[in-house]
Amino acid sequence: MFSPISFINEKTCCFTGHRKLPVEELPQIRARLRDIVAYMVREKGVDTFIAGGALGFDTLSAQAVVQARAEDPRLRLVLAIPCRNQDLKWGPKDKAVYQTLLHQADEVLVLSDEYTNTCMRERNCFMVDHSAYCVCYLENRSPRSGTAFTAEYAQGQGREVVNLAGMEPSFYQNALTV
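^ that's the sequence the OP posted. Answer follows.
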């Protein structure tokens, strides 16, 4: 399950988003993810997707890729895990979903053996550094938001960024921007 980095930057898209998502918006977020994965594959030639494996948007993103891969086996899911014990404080249901995703991933990259104050940010930078595109769900732009940091970092690195928060599906066809 653990292997060296073997994906190509130009055909790779990473995901970043909030852990807590509005429950009433989950169906729309799932639909947007399904649509953006299809768009990235069709219009941008993406074949590899990196998710951080955290709760919330990361989990929904990984599930969207697994679903798309059922129809297009060329697609790859890479989970970039910040530390081995990422799920230490999660509930049983979330741990079960996480374990399923670990087994469904084509690659699992663990970036630190244990939690550190910087492991989440290092994971986020790693995902951006190995991607040409970044899909986010960004509503909270506070300086403490890891999602805001990652989206801004991606823009600063010249990556194309799509923010799915509040976006209408027709917008995917017109622009890629935060």
